[in-house]
Amino acid sequence: MAEAQDNITVGGSGCQFVTFCLGVEEYGVDILKVQEIIGITPVTKVPYLPDFIKGVINLRGIVVPIVDLRLRFLLPVAEYTDRTCVVIIKVVERVVGMVVDSVSEVMEIAEAMIDAAPSFGHGVRTDFIEGMGKVDERLILLLNIEKLFTEGEMQEINTVSSTDVEAAGIAETSGKAQEQAVEAEGCTDSGDNELQSQDAV
């Protein structure tokens, strides 16, 4: 079982972020938006959804849409590995799972170490980037989860989230998949920050 990495504090008082990787890039989300981290698990496909919404899982009776962040950000497709994780977050009162290549650590970044999001000109969305965290030689894109999806995409997510799990026959996420969340290297959790993987059934 992989041990969770120690929290890293950068520049004193600041905000805590759960950091993760997509390829060589690092991203961070406010720890208060993260409910838990689980291992990759089979999803139930739902027709007519955008490609980046891979389907849904039944997480203790809650229908959770699973979003592949690589596809959402138009990055090249990558095979899932034992480091692939699903970060369960809450977006506009909806629970959503984000598939990421690996989870790194819980990090505190001082406001002084966070720059504003850059502007790339007309037609390029950057509203979902809260800022750029500077940590030593690393640059971490801090995401604004509330703005990660467009209004139309949130409508799709709301529709899927309202599915009745029993009527749809969506099986609950298995204990094996939950256990992998703890054992997989790179899929770490931090009890100190109340960020915990699911208990194995």
Strand order of the biggest β-sheet = 1-9-2-3-12-11-10
Low-pLDDT windows of residues: 1-12, 175-185, 188-201
Q: Helix-strand pattern, N to C?
A: EEEEEEHEEEEEEHHH
* Count of separate DSSP helical elements: 4
Question: How far apart, in Å, are the first and last alpha carbons?
Answer: 17 Å
Radius of gyration: 17 Å
3D architecture notes:
This protein is mainly β and 201 residues long. 14% of the residues lie in helices and 38% in strands. It contains four helices and twelve strands. It has helices at 69-72, 151-161, 165-168, 175-183, and strands at 8-10, 14-22, 25-30, 34-39, 53-59, 62-68, 85-91, 94-100, 102-110, 114-115, 129-135, 138-143. A seven-stranded mixed β-sheet has the order 1-9-2-3-12-11-10, with no helix packed on it. The longest helix is centred in the last third of the chain and has 11 residues, at 151-161. It is globular, with a radius of gyration of 17 Å. The chain starts with 7 loop residues before the first strand and ends in an 18-residue tail after the last helix.
